[in-house]
Write a structure and sequence with these properties.
Blueprint: H1 2-37, H2 47-52, E1 59-66, E2 71-77, E3 80-81, E4 85-86, E5 92-99, E6 106-122, E7 129-144
Length: about 150
């Protein structure tokens, strides 16, 4: 009986040591498995940088100027009316509220209103180049080519 009581005490003294070592081994194994499955943030590619590099749609824009004429014009398209622009030889950007199309070209009827001679319309991204005079309104169809900022 005394031997059984002594054996129980020895077992109790070893139990916390064995349990501690066992717990440390289990924790080490779990940490190792997690590290192998998920690389550290320094080793993993930067996910936020790749999401920032996604392509963005760009605004519809035209450049308007004159080579030897003068006058003031406004652009009207899709319910938008630009502020008045006094023409100069220096191209001025006209930004429309709609975005350029994503995949296929889009035709839009546009009018230039005002009174001006030798109005030059060009684009930063296509080969658009129109020259005309405006007395009242000049209407034409512009084809917006798909463009993204990437």
């Amino acid at each position: 009986m005394q031997h059984a009581a002594l054996h129980g005490q020895v077992q109790r003294k070893r139990s916390p040591v064995i349990v501690g070592i066992g717990a440390a081994a289990v924790a080490s194994a779990a940490t190792l498995v997690m590290m192998m499955g998920n690389p550290s943030p320094a080793a993993a590619p930067d996910q936020t940088a790749s999401s920032i590099k996604q392509c963005q749609m760009i605004q519809r824009r035209l450049l308007v100027s004159t080579t030897r004429g003068s006058g003031t014009v406004r652009f009207r398209a899709s319910g938008y009316l630009s502020p008045p622009l006094t023409l100069t030889p220096q191209p001025q950007v006209v930004v429309f509220p709609l975005l350029r199309p994503d995949t296929t070209p889009v035709e839009e009827i546009m009018s230039v209103e005002g009174s001006a001679s030798d109005v030059v319309i060009t684009s930063e991204v296509t080969d658009l180049h129109k020259v005309f005079d405006v007395t009242g309104a000049y209407t034409y169809t512009v084809t917006w080519a798909p463009r993204k900022s990437c």
